[in-house]
Amino acid sequence: MAGELEALIDEMKKARKIFVITGAGVSAESGVPTFRGKDGLWRNYDAMQLATPEAFERDPVLVWEWYLWRRSLIAEAEPNPAHKILASWEERYPDFLIATQNVDRLHQRAGNRHVEEIHGNIWETRCTRTGQVYSPEEKEVRGDHLPPESPAGGLLRPNVVWFGEILPTGPLERINSFLSSSNPNVCFVIGTSALFYYIQSWAVTVKMRGGLLVEVNPDTTPLSEISDFHLEKPAAPALALIDSLVSGSTPDS
Ligand code: OAD
Asked: Pairing relation of β-strands 17-22 and 186-190?
């Protein structure tokens, strides 16, 4: 494995700019279930039946119960070695950005500051009437008071992006400006099924402009075939291997 990675390791040693796209798989080793597959099932519902505006309109209590369950798992979760290695890379590389689909804040808890949350944040809520966003301190949501209401009398929803909704403009603009100011040397796509067009588009753009595209995922995705490297391993051991080879220490896997 190490030999096959030589070109990547050479590039990482001289790289200045790294772009990382993450999905649920990077938090799987912290105990947060992914969305697709049997892992994502909750009371026999899957994410596609719950993470939609239609589901919320039909049954806001059910959707909130699911989010409170996910929040309870996330509250107990700790950043895993994959998060920590990404935090150390932010120290090492002068230009570094993570675009995450995760709403769990584990990248920030591991120490990353340059993180764009393209699917929002599970701890915040938003008023469906006014659009105002509330921090958890401002508006606590409890299981015995569902569905929660905002001070303006509207229904409160989790401040996350659901299927069919548009992405928040701030993170999008910052990601676009990061990608267009100069091309990243390497784009990592870690732990995501990469089904959304914007994920594919960012990865393909970096590759077309000459950057290396590296996928870290035990499974294949639509990006696997065009990736320069596909590490078919869980995120923590895969990133530990790359990190040890780049820093010159002995890889243990
Ligand atoms: P998915 O659940 O679709 O995909 C998780 C990916 O992680 C799969 O490709 C797995 O093979 C991979 N995986 C599992 N364990 C892993 C590990 N230990 N290390 C590395 N990879 C691993 O999650 P996302 O791609 O994040 O959106 O899904 C994207 C979005 O769909 C989510 O943000 C959420 C979901 O519905 C919304 O809620 C809008």
From this structure: parallel
pLDDT confidence tier of residue 249, bands split at 50, 70 and 90 = low
Show the domains of the chain with their CATH numbers. Answer: 3-31+79-119+167-247 (3.40.50.1220), 37-76+124-160 (3.30.1600.10)
Q: Could you give the residue numbers annotated as active site?
A: 119
Dihedral through CA 43, CA 49, CA 52, CA 58, nearest 10?
-80
51 — phi, psi (to 5°)? -90, 55
Span 182-207, pLDDT tens digits: 999 999 999 999 999 999 999 999 99
**Pocket around ligand 1 at a 6 A CB cut-off:** 23-25, 28-29, 34-36, 40, 47, 51, 101, 119, 160-163, 191-193, 216-219, 221, 234-235
pTM of the model: 0.95
